[in-house]
Amino acid sequence: MQQHNRGSLHLSRRSFLRRSAATAACLAVPAGSVLQAAAAQATFDLIVAGATMIDPFQKRRQVADVGIKDGKIAQTAPQLDRGAAAKVLAAKGLLLTPGWIDLHAHIFFGHRKNAVHPDRDAGVHTGVTTLADPGGFVSSEFDLFRSNIVEKSTTRVLGFVNVSATRHADQSTRRPVHGDWSLFDQELTIKTIVENRDVIQGVKVLSSVRHSGNLGITPTRLAVQAARESGTRVMAHIGMAPPLIQDVMNLLEKGDIITHCFKGFPSGLFHRDGTPVVAARQAIQRDVSLDLGHGAGSFAWRAARHALKADIPLHSLSTDLHQGSVRGPVWSYGRTMAKLLHLGYPIDEVVKLSTLGPAELIGQGRELGSLEAGTVADLTLFRIVETPTGLTDSLGNSEIGARDVQPVHCIRAGQLISDMKIPPRG
Question: Cα–Cα–Cα angle for 214, 215, 219, nearest 5°?
Fold first, then answer.
């Protein structure tokens, strides 16, 4: 405020009136309107005005303005001088949070048959500012992933490299992706991670009989080795045994991630009676994290309710979006948030699971999971709509929720995007 007061001493009467008029106009316009101000006078490139800000990193919830300059959050305050912005976005009535983060979406679009478009289907046009592809690329094709997906997307794109360094030459068959010794090259995998830490956040392994075949637990052991040697982390997909989930979880340490944590069939985190397997509690005590990874086959209402009853924490919300889930049962990130609300998670907890939680899993809690001044201006503005909404789990069980979560605007490194994709309510 002191800086603003000093600057105002030098304003001409005309400039003062122009700023006052812009401020008054902003207060009168509906949410979502963008006002233009005199760029020559701009302290901020954009002010997001009057939204209810939820910042899980700072544990703050208040109606506030957010000023953005050069792609960074410059200032937050109950009210900024809106005449000092090149643009003002009137956001009264909307919720404003750090940009949503999805650590599990298959986005190697144009190169994998099941991949969805990183911006249109899973990213900024759905309110998500940061995506990670978990194992959709292998080390031998990482340069292609970087040039065609990372560098061409508005959404920030990260990834977990597949522990298999190469793919089967014949991809028309459903051969296990980790099922042959010839697919592994630990030297190449570790080298690829170390040289590309700006994108690669760890190693993805598919710890199931479908993906590991007769090699059983070995691919998981190789993923752990690659993660430890590269100073990153493992993201382990859990599925039908072998390997047993107990054997998988016993290999994991602090910072590693289990994805598909609310699966609804044997080999998941819960016994048939709903109690957690002992290895799950032990892993959580070692600070192994649980990621949702909804997808077409990995989210069951009953497993989620078992977790709530047993006080098993969820650390990160993710969609596992791909061609088999983007038109149901997942649809979008916002619809997945609505499912957690339906289960009884408070909105502030859902926000944390969508922002700070996944940001902390990749060691970027403050930069990507907060609204502190000086951090990147990745923001999501959304509304919670009170409306009957069909919500379906991965086993085809549908329930009617009372609320939907709908993104309205997305700001990625200061760039405002308002063309949002909202799925049907079902």
Answer: 145
What are the backbone angles phi and psi of residue 120, rounded to the nearest 5°? -70, -45
Torsion angle, CA of 309/311/315/319, rounded to 10 degrees?
A: -10
In the chain, the amino acid numbered 20 is S
Packing angle, helices 347-354 and 333-343, rounded to 10: 140
Name the class of domain 99-369: alpha beta
Residue 80 in 3-state DSSP?
A: coil
Domain residue extents for the chain: 2-93, 99-369
At which residue do the structure tokens 């700023």 appear?
Answer: 19
Q: Report residue 178 CA to chain centroid gap.
A: 26
Are the C-beta atoms of residues 220 and 179 closer than 8 Å to each other? no
Domain 2-93 has CATH 2.30.40: yes
Distance between CA 197 and CA 182 in Å, rounded?
25
3-state class (DSSP) for residue 240: coil
pLDDT tens per residue across span 46-94: 999 999 999 999 999 999 999 999 999 999 999 999 999 999 999 999 9
